């Protein structure tokens, strides 16, 4: 699996980097777990029109909107004009602590 990491504090040129993650199999395999997340979250994996950025179809950690029928992703795709940002570290850490 290849993941594009758009920015980090060690990326001095702010160009981002591709990271390769290998499949190891088993219940804790990061590739298998990511595949389940993409499937169950109905993530879009490729742009459907030219206004969508091919690199930014959507970060893995995103805002979930809860309704009476359950949770769903607030937005499914980015556009060049309106990029989608991932959930902040503090919001993610707080939600993880609550779980």
Automatic annotation (TrEMBL):
This is Uncharacterized protein.
């Amino acid at each position: 699996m290849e993941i594009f990491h758009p920015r980090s504090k060690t990326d001095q040129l702010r160009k981002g980097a591709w990271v390769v993650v290998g499949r190891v199999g088993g219940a804790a395999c990061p590739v298998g777990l990511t595949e389940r997340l993409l499937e169950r979250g109905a993530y879009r994996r490729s742009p459907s029109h030219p206004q969508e950025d091919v690199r930014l179809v959507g970060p893995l950690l995103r805002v979930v909107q809860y309704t009476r029928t359950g949770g769903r992703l607030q937005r499914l795709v980015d556009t060049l004009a309106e990029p989608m940002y991932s959930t902040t570290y503090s919001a993610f850490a707080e939600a993880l602590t609550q779980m």
